Structure formats: C-alpha cells, structure tokens
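Quick illustration, no need to memorize.
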Amino acid sequence: MKDLLTALPLGGLGEIGMNGLVLSYQGRRLLIDCGVMFPDAMEASADLILPDLRFFAEHGDSIGAMVLTHGHEDHIGAVPFVLKQASMPVYGSPFTLGLVERRLKEHGLLERADLRLLEPYMRHDGPVYPPELPDFGLSLIRVTHSIPDAASLVIHTPKGVVLHTGDFKIDPHPIDKQHFDHNAFRNLGDHGVLLMLSDSTNAQVPGHTRSEQETLENIEERVQHWRGRIFITQFASNLHRLLGLEAMAKRCGRRLCLVGRSLHTYTNIAKKVDMPCIDVDDLLPVEQLPDTPDDEVMVVMTGSQGEFRSALGRASRNEHRHIAFKKGDRLLMSARFIPGNEASIFDLVNDLSRLGVDVIHPLMAPIHTSGHARQEELKTMLELVRPHMFVPIHGTHAFLKAHRGLAEDCGVHDTLIVENGKEFAAEPERGLFVVDEHPMDTYYYDGMHTGDADALGLNERKKLFFNGAVSAFVQLPHRNRPYQPKVTLQSVGLYTDSDRLLTGGAAEVEEELATLGRDTTISEIEAWTQRIVRRFFRRQTKRKPLVMTTVIQEENR
C-alpha cells in the first residue's frame, strides 16, 4: 500500500465542518486543513468538536507538514490541538497564518510553532517541496471566498497532480480586487490533473452565487434613505463586506463603528499582514454613539447567530454598556442562518422587534451571499481543470452525491463518494478505489480539557439534560431501633408535580428497603435505591433520571 497515492478524510465528508484530509505516499503524510465543528443546541455540552486526536498521536511521526487553504475555523480551529499531539510545520497564506498565530498564542504554542508562508499564486519557479515531504510539491491558487487570502491547493506527486479546491466561489467583482485565478486553473488543466477534490457545500443549489458587490448594493438600498441609526450584523471574518460597508457609510454620510471583539481581531490581523482592510483610525468609538446624530451612525456588530453573550445578544436584552436599541433603529442581518441556530436567531429578532427595531434578515431581502460556489461555478471549475478523477468533499452525503453528478455531466467518469474514515487510492492505471476503513472517534474541547465523550463526562451531561437527576439520601436506623430506613429525595431538571413525586418516590423506596433486613450491605442498599428511584420516575414521568445515592448509619444517642 506504500506505493499507492491515498487520501484519508478525517472530517468534513458526510457532515458540515471539521474539514481535514490526509494525503499519503511512501509512508509519508500531508495534512490538508485542520478544522473544528461547533456543537448545535442539542450538543452544547462542549465548546468545540475536534477530529480524532488519537490518529495524530499514533501517526504524528509520519505527518511531514500541514497546509491550510484559508482561515475559517472549520479549516484551522483544530491546529493547536493537533500540534499538541504531533509536531509539524504549518503552511498557509499570510492572513491565514496570522489567524493561526493568534490561536497558537492562546494555547501557549506560538514560540515553538514552525509557520511557513505560502503565497496564493502559482510560482514561476515551481512548487515548494517541504524538506520533510520531498515527494509533495505545494502551490496555492487564488480563489474568492468569504474571507481574505483563500486559496486552492495544488500538490505535485510522483503519481500526478492533485487539486484540493478548498472553499471557493467565482466572484466576478471581488471587493478587495483579488480575483479568482481562471488562467492558473486553466493552465493546470492543460498540463493534466490526476485527482480533483472539490467543495460541495452548494452543490444542490442551481445558478451562480450572488457577488459581494451586488449584495452590498442591496444593503445600501436599505440604508441610504433611512433616517434612524443603522445596525448591521455579519460574520466577523468577512472583511470584504466590511470594506464595502466602510465605503457605503461614507457615501451615506455615516460613520462606521465596530462593536464586538472578533471584528477588531480580524481587522487588526489584516492590518498586520498588510491586507486590504478598513481604516481603524477613522472608526467612531462606541462610547460616542449617544452623542452622534442618528442619521450619521452605522454600527457593525457580532451576534448574527443569536449568540447569547455576543454584542448584539446583550444589546437585545438591554445589557450592553454602550448600546440601547430604540424605536427608529434598523438592523440588517447580513449573514446566513446556520442550521441549528434558527430558534436563537428568531428569539433575538423578536426581542429586537419588541424594542421597536426594524429588523431585516436574509429570508426577507438579498442582503447576504454565500462564500461557496453554486452549480454553475462548480461546473466552471470542472471545465477549467478537466481532472481524470474526481472526489467531492466538504458536505453531507446528499451534497457529495449532487456534486458527483455535476462532475459526470462535465465528462469526468472516474468518481467516488467517500465519508470520514474511508481511505481511498488514486492510481493512474487503476483509478479510484477504497483501500481501508479507519474508525474515527470524536474528540471535544470543554473548558480547558480535551478528550472523548466518556473522558469529559459528556454522555452523563447529556443524560442530565434530557432526564434530569435525583439525589437519594438514605438514613439507616441504629441497630437498637426498628429497621425502618428514612429516605429523602431531591431533584434537578425533572418534573416533580410540586414535589409530590419526590414524596411518593421516597415512600416507595422506604417501603421496599424495609423488606431487605439488617444484613444488607451499604453497596446493596445503594444499588436497590437507584433501581427503585429510576423505576418510579420512569413510570411517573417516562424519564430515566441519573440517580445519586448517599447512605449513612444513624449513630446511637
């Protein structure tokens, strides 16, 4: 198998987020992207969902380098956690590495990290060959996406060229003037591409993704004639849109104000690496908002997903130190609703509506656009590159299937759908085929600790969330007294009918324990008590609470 060129998806295939893939040849490995996933409302027992860290602990010595296609958290968020398991150099574009630096500093890893710059353009002197991976030559090609410095990755191997598109769309009018590099992809196709791995996020959506310029024009239509204050919420990483909003504010006679730590973080990193960004020295300080005329204000805030502790979330509850919404304010929600966040977002919208705010969101008007290519752009990429083989990546199984159909329509007939853990080969003579299946465990970051669900107690926490908990306190009589245990029950997160069920459950435990006799051991009493309490509440509430039992022996008085 060492003579095969193989790829192993660690995340992002069959799901959305936590993107990562390992390319292998002759026992040496290249890690492409290293992302996290954010738990939804039903999984919110941990802060982050991580790839299988055990894989990196076991195979870290064979991973010669990591290369990052762009700086979104679902592509770089796991870098610190992986580098704690295995040491390797990290390649990426300037802005991407700037974001990684910040994460590594937070984890105390920056001093020993080996970060290597890879500019997003096809080099005239050929690809970069990491000393640790002499069989893999790396180049980046500029693409347009919803974050600066996004790129596709070209890997030159002894078996042929592999193209990993990363996340992309084809925006004809990019705000930062950094255009999708059609010529580089066409030239790549002219020279031959063995395997193409491509973003499938919007593979089911027909047409072209709306450009940033058109989106900003739609926003400006709803800004230019409004006489009150304008508030806009967006993803902090979308600095292209922020640049457009800065120009829009000037045209409309307003001053731009940023509210939310992450907006300042991304802007400062862009400035540090000399990327196009807003003029931070011309921003309106948030402290001056109350003294600024309403029709001269444009505030960009974090909190587009209804996050409770975000700037917008706190302001919607009148808990923000500097912002108090009022009648006459308008909020434009220039961000998609991430699946799973809808309830929080519409709770936020309702809270703002009660305060008299005019709220416009993407379901009402075209004030947001995706960073991912739709079907026509995906076909354009396929027609430019003309790969011999194609594997769709980044998406649910339905997305992957739709993208494979597009590839076959474009004349690529050697295609394969795989999901996380299925290692496949791409061989010039034999084509695509699965060579192995690796069980993938899910790891989590919770507060300060990482581990699997059992190690972090997440499974118990989920049981508590759904079923509640009961604490049973059992007092055994002294041996000189009649054997009649006394039981007290307390509960958390469980229906008790105004404590009636707690009283009834305690009585049932007392009655059954009295039949056991004095020779019953403490551990047996604990087991019996847990069994009786769980059975009682399952019968009364259809729930199976977590039961914690304390048994003490009464002292002689």
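The chain has a mean pLDDT of 93.
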